[in-house]
Amino acid sequence: DRGIGRRDTVTIMLRTEADFFPAFFGTLLAGAIPVPIYPPLRANRITEYAERQVAILANAGTCLMITFAEVERLAGMLRRRVPTLTSVTTLDDLAPPAENSGPPLLKPPVLLTAEDPALIQYTSGSTGQPKGVLLTHGNLLANIRAIGKGLDIRPDDVAVSWLPLYHDMGLIGAWLGTMYFGVPVTILPPLAFLSRPARWLWSIHAHRATLSVAPNFAFDLCVNKITDKEIEGLD
Predict the structure, then answer these.
(1) What percent of the chain has pLDDT over 90?
(2) Are 198 and 231 in contact (CB under 8 A)?
(3) Minimal CA–CA distance to 10: which of 61, 81, 65?
(4) Which long-range contacts (CB under 8 A, 24 or more apart) does 17-21 make?
(5) In which region does residue 48 sit, left (phi positive, over 0), alpha (psi from -120 to 50) or beta (all else)?
(6) Which of 181, 178, 139, 149 is nearest to 161 (CA)?
(7) How many helices (H) and strands (E) does the chain have?
């Protein structure tokens, strides 16, 4: 309804939260290309953050940005500096009005092939300007199938992840991958783990998880920060 269609780019500037899932799939169902970017983390570095995101949004030719209410003002600043960005919105604003209780007006489905673009993934930019990589649906499926083979994922597996959804390891591996294989997954916000690493282990314990992936620093953090008392009774 916002005029977003095939091969338009939609930037998703959301935290690792429930809103991310309908925003991502809504973009795909419209035939558009999601561009996940990390949200601002520190108020004292907001200028530096804005400069980096302007370059990404301009490079991607973003038409629409989906974000959360607390940073709409920042998103508005970005909009003024990116000519293609015509609208900044939240998931609540995109939802149909409550009084509209009738069935939604369904439009013809967008037919996509393995060669159609599915996602633009940007590098972190830690060694230079972030660079975008256009991934097709075929690319994503090949990656997910390789992960499944490498981990020997089975139907009775259960996963836990705290990896951010705007990062390929959290987005493709932990979320899209578990959905492809029909494996239930519990997703925690990254800050829940970083502020108290034991939460990761207790989540694995509580959900009887058999799969959980993280970069090496996460294991170091567990060793250095978790006390014996915090994990008394942990399986």
Answers:
(1) 65
(2) yes
(3) 65
(4) 17/68, 17/189, 19/68, 19/91, 20/165, 21/175
(5) alpha
(6) 178
(7) 10, 8
Q: How far apart are CA 71 and CA 197, in angstroms?
A: 27
Write out the DSSP string of 166-230: TSHIIIIIIIIHHHHTT--EEE--HHHHHH-THHHHHHHHHHT-SB----HHHHHHHHHH--TGG
Answer with the residue of higher pLDDT: 142 or 70: 142
Output the six-digit token pair for 197: 């690493």
For residues 194 and 2, what is the distance between their CA atoms, to the nearest angstrom? 37
Mean pLDDT of 140-167: 96
Residue 43 near residue 11 (C-beta atoms within 8 A)? no
In this prediction the pTM is: 0.89
pLDDT in tens, 74-129: 777 788 889 999 888 899 988 877 666 667 667 777 888 999 999 999 987 666 77
**DSSP strand pairing (62-67 vs 9-12):** parallel
| pLDDT for position 46 | 72
CB 153 within 8 A of CB 196: no
pLDDT tens per residue, range 22-58: 999 999 999 999 999 988 877 667 777 777 888 899 9
Alpha-carbon distance of 180 to 197, in angstroms, equals 28
